[in-house]
Fold each of these.
Amino acid sequence: MSTDGRVTLSHCPYCALNCGVGLETDPAGRLVGQVRWKGSPLTGGAVCSKGSTAWEQVQHRDRLTAPLVRRDGRLVETSWDEALDLAAEGFARIKAEHGADVNAVLSGGSLTNEKAYLVGKFARLAFGTRHVDYNGRFCMVSAGSANLQAFGLDRSMTPLSEVERADVVVVVGANVSDAYPVMLPNAINRARQRGARIIAVDPRFGRWVKDGDTALAIRPGTDGVLFLGLLAEVERQGLLDVDYIAERTVGFAEAIAAARPWTPERVEAETDIDAATVRDVARAIATAPRCMILHARGAEQQTMGTNNVLSMINLALACGLPGRPGSGIDMLTGQRNGQGGREWGQRCNQLPAGRSIADPEHRRVVAERWGVPVESLPGVGATYVEILQMAGRREIRGLLSISNNWRISAPDLHAVDRQADELDHVVVIDPFLSESAERHATIVLPGTTFAEEEGTITTIEGRVVRCDQAVAPVPRRSDIDIVRNLARRLGVGEHFDFVRGREVFDEMRRVSAGGPNDYSGITWDRARDGVFWPCPSEDHPGTPQLYTDRFAHADGRARFVAVHRLSPPVDVDRQYPFVLTTGRHLAQYLSGNQTKRIDAQQRKAPGPYAELHPEIATELGLTPEDRIVLTSRQGRSVVPWRPNPSLRPDTVFMLYHWRECNTLTSADLDPTSKIPGFKFTPVAVRRLAAVGDDDVANEVPSDVNDRPGPLEVPS
Ligand SMILES: Nc1nc2c(c(=O)[nH]1)N[C@H]1C(S)=C(S)[C@@H](COP(=O)(O)OP(=O)(O)OC[C@H]3O[C@@H](n4cnc5c(=O)[nH]c(N)nc54)[C@H](O)[C@@H]3O)O[C@H]1N2
Ligand SMILES: Nc1nc2c(c(=O)[nH]1)N[C@H]1C(S)=C(S)[C@@H](COP(=O)(O)OP(=O)(O)OC[C@H]3O[C@@H](n4cnc5c(=O)[nH]c(N)nc54)[C@H](O)[C@@H]3O)O[C@H]1N2
Ligand code: SF4
Ligand SMILES: [Mo]
């Protein structure tokens, strides 16, 4: 790769594989393209189609270049000074009239570590509010809460390079082909070619699943039952790793007692995976010299998501996988900084470096390092969906939003619109006008793209890497500048006096020292090639493999947590007989506020559709041109459909990147992680009848499309 000073090394702004990229600029300082960074960690210079066009967003014609303020219902351009003044005044007024907790912050897992840290600090010191949460609440929190309970840390334990050497690879609820398109499909393929057994647990199989793999077409929402049954079966076959259980864990007796009733036959009745296969898979996992279990959102974005992950972890512990090099159970993190974004205090229950906001010692350390009285730190606040619900009740009136887009990605969008309509003061920081900003913002501050600001991110594996700044920010101010300027106006400027990412990073290293997620030994230089945390000193090599000697709990032991079957709060019935499950297309990223603007991506995935099993399509009498009407208790959507023979016939799969999807989902939450059950919504499906049909009025205009029609049945 040329290093003539015009290539800046960075990482793709989209998914958590964080493929390394070289950003090419011309002598005038404009971004002109992207080149391979062959030496980049994990992915070695490879990118998918999204990654290869990511640079196009930076100087895109749709970029917001000036702040907007809402006047007479319309967003109009204004100066930076006026926008910042109005933004700060609005929050100050709400705080003075109604109290600190009446302002809230919603943020995101695409932010760099530095910005995630600043956002959490800003909420606590500038607003003084308890209510700060982020869009990772829709993503990693079930996996995170289960890992914290079981192991005492929230990070993947084994590097993904081990996948290709495994003898058994179990993939639970991961759409590898679309969501992890680089590196992982190859690693699984290499393992397969070496003779490894690949076990996929999913109601829908992607291109990465091949003939000869063990494809378990599980009934959605029943993963917990499958893993309870596998644990019980490992015991029945005498395959428990009894030494490991005795030496390295606690809580086994209760966990196995809860699992024993789940015989293979009972598992079959609940999950549709036949009893013989349950016995066989249990033996395969328990006897493999090297076994890797990988899980993504399929089993996690459920109202029993935490339990589902705990039941997988219990099986892994019973087989002695965690901490055994070459084996383990890893969560596949999703967003660009899905890992770092959940470490640095932008969550309602968290302080920086994985510290707990409820822990007196953690509070004391952070207050001391921030130079503020410990009593001034707010306590635990509300989670994302709860913040929106509080807005609906006018308990929250001011909202600062950075790097999230609730009008696509939150569940039950009709309710969300009504809730956010109640807010008095909404400030959105985003590089592009989002659906959320368009409808709800009082003030929009142009945000920064990945190429315009330096910072670190923490990869899917837990490696801290650096993104360098390639070009000056198009809107002239960076996100860090915005935070500094708002803080100054709110009277706390001295705590936010940062201009460059590396200055923030230095403070973070100091704040993290001695904490659960210790970054103190990771220098800006070392972050070029990446260092795995924990890294407590500059001569420490970092920790790629966790838990080889001890787990992160004080006694060094992992916890089995007894898991009991939890069912979805609302199951399918005669009125809503299908399960709607939702997910991704290779070409689009999340709410699409970036990728939908890039022609190459938009051409590949121009709009929403649902997939049906061909048998169901035949039963409904569908032609390829027909559209279908999907109805749930929450709302109704009309979309094109496509056949997918690798989908369970009782399940409908829908792309989530457009409003048509979350119009249907419900805001029921997992009681522990507070993640919504995005992967399980009972729906009815029918063909949209031809012209003359009652519904034709709902057919064409897209703004009508997602409004509940006459078919809606109140819950
Ligand atoms: N192209 C692209 N890639 C992305 C993203 C993107 O938006 N676009 N987003 C990134 C982010 S933030 C994330 S979180 C990841 C998500 O990565 P994934 O979780 O792999 O992605 P999803 O498409 O949500 O697919 C989840 C899988 O779970 C399956 N599933 C549904 N219900 C169940 C169930 O009850 N049990 C089981 N076992 N499986 C079930 C679905 O069929 C699907 O295969 O992707 C990341 N990568
Ligand atoms: N039905 C259903 N719903 C889902 C999911 C599902 O599988 N099914 N998946 C969920 C998951 S896993 C996730 S992660 C969430 C994602 O939820 P969203 O919050 O919608 O995520 P994004 O689309 O990334 O929105 C991020 C916004 O931040 C902006 N942005 C990006 N980077 C920066 C930055 O550095 N600075 C600033 N200021 N702005 C930035 C983007 O332009 C975009 O408008 O959605 C969830 N919703
Ligand atoms: S979207 Fe993910 S797989 Fe594609 S280039 Fe970016 S980081 Fe790599
Ligand atoms: Mo995610």
Note: The first helix runs from residue 49 to 53.
Amino acid sequence: MPKTNETVLEIDLKALEHNFNYFKSKIKSTTKFLGVVKAFAYGSDAIKIAKKLEQLQVDYLAVAYTGEGVSLRKSGVQTPILVLHPQPINFDQLIEYNLEPSIYSHKILDCFLNTVSAKELSKYPVHLKFNTGLNRLGFIENEVDTLIKKLNAQEVLKITSIFSHLAASEDAKEQKFTVSQIEAFTRISAKINAQLTHTPFKHILNTSGILNYPSAQFDMVRSGIGLYGFGNNKETDTQLKPVASLKTIISQIHKIEPNGSVGYNRGFTSNKPTVTATLPIGHADGIGRQYGNGKTYVLVNGKKAPIIGNVCMDMIMIDVTDISCKEGDEVVIFGQDNSAEEFAATANTISYELVTGISQRVKRVLIE
Ligand SMILES: *Cc1c(COP(=O)(O)O)cnc(C)c1O
């Protein structure tokens, strides 16, 4: 692999394929697979990832907002796209680009019905979202009867699927709660099958759900973080490959005398002769200030170097006193050998937050 000459986020599509096949092997061959590509495909590159997933014959894609779906359509992605959290202001655009909304409340339902009716369209595909305990978005169980009455009285919308979302699928301590969510969804599904004039397909599992509750796979599963290489547990992580690696280089090396200081507000002071390296990446790139002051490591020539002092907007400084290195050498912020999950954990956060926060200033480089 050629070494980088600047800060880049490498995106490894082979790793994506590996992870996709791993999760496919965990489900029945008849179960559909939805790839979640919201938030620039978890901070990587939504278009490249969506096109690769399309090539791998993913059944569905999901984004959070309409604009994300529009950008995929404009790039030529043809796979059905579920918009998880649409807003009425974007309904015209959503329809124009053949995106499929999650309908999560009566207000959204009535508003979407009106928009589609006004265009004299019929049987527009939509997905009903049920709240089974996350208490974030969705209809509740005792709204099912009135909902079905409303839906059976119209032909404007077609209920393509019904779904729910688990609150704690990665958390063994919350197994009882998760099972109660799956049971609620099963009851809702049965009611809908019995009363709706046609049978929508069903889905509830996210990445950790696929791993921990495979018997609840229904007709489709939805994976995001797993596709990008994180399984929310150590054992699975060893089976997966990170899609994104954040790399940079050493811009300058400094020799710091005892009692010298490094960075703004003299965040680091040396008690012995110290060698530091300055890297062209900072909080504006998504490496927040919480990663400074010695808690977090990067890899320099395979060795761990702590980030010292305060993280600056465009730079960080690392301690390379005991590492043989020179200006221009490659530095791995996170990747195969120092995972984003571990990096994030040093600041009490999770891989999801770290990877989705890598700013658009960082060049994305595709590894095919
Ligand atoms: C983001 C999201 C997912 C993906 O979750 P992962 O834990 O990343 O697999 C699935 N379903 C819904 C509704 C989501 O919002």
Note: The pocket of pyridoxal-5'-phosphate is lined by residues 36, 38, 84, 165, 206-207, 222-226 (CB under 6 Å).
